[in-house]
Design brief:
Elements: E1 4-9, H1 13-23, E2 29-35, H2 38-48, E3 52-55, H3 64-74, E4 79-84, H4 89-98, E5 102-105, H5 110-121, E6 126-127, H6 129-140, H7 157-167, H8 172-179, H9 183-197, H10 202-211
Helix pairs in contact: 2-3, 3-4, 6-10, 7-9, 7-10, 8-9
């Protein structure tokens, strides 16, 4: 079994120690390193090439937000999960904008964090329920007339199906099995969707699908 390579980033040693104890009990997760700052996280990602980074948001010096932005710029295949005490809109949307694929509060159950790691390692998005509501509220209540999304009608029926599956959290392989198409075909549809909608990430597609009513949370 191929393990998920995990990097822990938190400026509190006791937090990292607790996380290590949690993940060491999971047979499919391997902790490849830990960092105590955003700057050291960048070095660790470059050296260790983890699949997933569990990132604290508020740290002295370089914040988790800036560290996430740089990690995604330098190694986009590494997924980042924000693990933080902050559940307000400011940090939440800044982390999503920086490229995080998951956002989990430190008060969450350990199983939630483990599930988040497994989800983002497969290219999915994991948002804690209370925070997912912020995302829905932001996009359903947006009233700025200058901010418009491309109409869903521009997508072909098959592209709409693929987009809905992506937004619902299915992996490319699962989408292929569900729609009886190859993984390569799923990839091609996904590229076409992103090009047509001028979007760059799965998070963008999820938000678009919510806005257009293709999925509900």
């Amino acid at each position: 079994m191929e393990k998920i390579r995990l990097l822990l980033v938190d400026d509190h040693k006791i937090v990292r120690a607790g996380l290590k104890m949690l993940f060491q009990a999971e047979p499919d997760i391997e902790i490849v390193g830990e960092a105590s700052s955003g700057a050291s996280a960048l070095d660790c990602v470059a050296e260790l090439q983890p699949d997933v980074v569990v990132m604290d948001v508020a740290m002295p010096g370089m914040s988790g937000i800036e560290a996430t932005r740089r990690i995604k710029a330098e190694r986009p295949e590494t997924a980042v999960i924000a693990l933080t005490m902050h559940e307000d809109e400011q940090y939440f949307f800044q982390m999503l904008a920086a490229g995080a694929s998951g956002y989990v509060p430190k008060r969450a159950a350990p199983d939630d964090l483990v599930s988040a790691i497994r989800a983002v390692s497969q290219g999915q998005v994991f948002l804690y329920p209370s925070l997912a509501k912020l995302l829905v509220a932001d996009f359903l209540q947006r009233s700025d007339p200058e901010v418009e999304l491309a109409p869903a009608a521009e997508l072909t029926p098959r592209e709409r199906e693929v987009l809905t599956c992506i937004a619902e959290g299915y992996t490319n392989r699962e989408i292929g099995e569900k729609l009886t198409i190859s993984v390569k075909t799923v990839d091609r549809h996904r590229e076409n969707i992103m090009h047509k909608l001028n979007m760059n990430s799965r998070v963008d597609l999820v938000k678009y699908a919510i806005e257009k009513g293709l999925i509900t949370l």
